[in-house]
Amino acid sequence: ATKQQITLNPAQIRWLSDRHFGVGCDQVLVIERAKSPKNDFRYRIFNANGSEVENCGNGARCFARYIYDHQLSSKKKLRVETAKGIIHPELLSNGSVRVDMGPPIFQPDQIPINTHSLSLTHDLMIGSITRTLAILSMGNPHAIQIVDHIDNAPVAIEGPLIEQHSFFPKRVNAGFMQIVDPTHIRLRVYERGAGETLACGTGACAAVVAGRLLGYLNEGTITVRTRGGTLTIDWAGDNNPVYMSGPAEYVFTGEVNVPSSPEI
């Protein structure tokens, strides 16, 4: 949408995202002209259920790779507007993309959560079980819990309960993190508006920040393994930005005729 305005309604987003009707995806990303002349592009993200969200780390890498490959900019490092602030994707020499995701957010009203407590962790009743969740925002809200083994994590059961918990006025992404060693985690995420996805970039950033602050992870580069692939996350602590690096791969290119009012 850099040369023409594109408006997609929620039903069209759901149609595009559905693997039985459209292309099939977790998010629909829209590239727009930046509102400020200081920035290169604007980046909008729509979940598979049609809702617009603030940020998506994996989407940021795909967004940047598309811009580079289609020569929409000659810059190797971009300045991109999102609904929650500015991100800085950068094409690396090995073809992967590194994204400055900005610093983590802990203020309750900015995550947002229904408390004034500045504590990182909160005990919430999830179904009939009390879970300790590390809660923060990476431009979108995340609730991280530590599990013994990721393959047995109750993602399908507890994910939607956490996502829709009344503690989160705008819902939340539910992360399940296994600490493999102080430099390596495994992660699954039940995403707000999308369900469990194969990978979640902002979820990986949030998990590493939580793991560091809780004393489980070392300083320096942390490897995050998801079902969809591997990311590396770097965070120097305090108010420093979180850097996410990983690949961006093409799975489909083409043109699609989107119905104006699909019944889905």
Overall pLDDT confidence: 94
Sequence stretches where pLDDT stays below 50 over 5 or more residues: none
| CATH homologous superfamily descriptor of the largest domain | Diaminopimelate Epimerase, Chain A, domain 1
Helix content: 10-25%
Chart the SSEs and their pairings.
Layout: H1 10-17, E1 27-33, E2 41-47, E3 52-53, H2 57-69, E4 80-82, E5 85-91, E6 97-100, E7 121-126, E8 129-137, E9 141-146, H3 155-163, E10 173-181, E11 184-191, E12 195-197, H4 201-213, E13 222-226, E14 229-235, E15 242-246
Parallel strand pairs: 2-4, 9-10, 11-13
Antiparallel strand pairs: 1-2, 2-3, 4-5, 5-6, 6-15, 7-8, 8-9, 10-11, 11-12, 13-14, 14-15
Overall description:
The protein has helices spanning 10-17, 57-69, 155-163, 201-213, and strands spanning 27-33, 41-47, 52-53, 80-82, 85-91, 97-100, 121-126, 129-137, 141-146, 173-181, 184-191, 195-197, 222-226, 229-235, 242-246. The chain has 264 residues and is an alpha+beta fold. The chain is globular and about 50 Å long. The mean pLDDT is 94.
Task: List descriptors.
264 residues; Diaminopimelate Epimerase, Chain A, domain 1; 15-stranded mixed beta sheet; 4 helices; 33% strand
What is this entry, summarized?
By secondary structure, this protein is of the alpha+beta class.
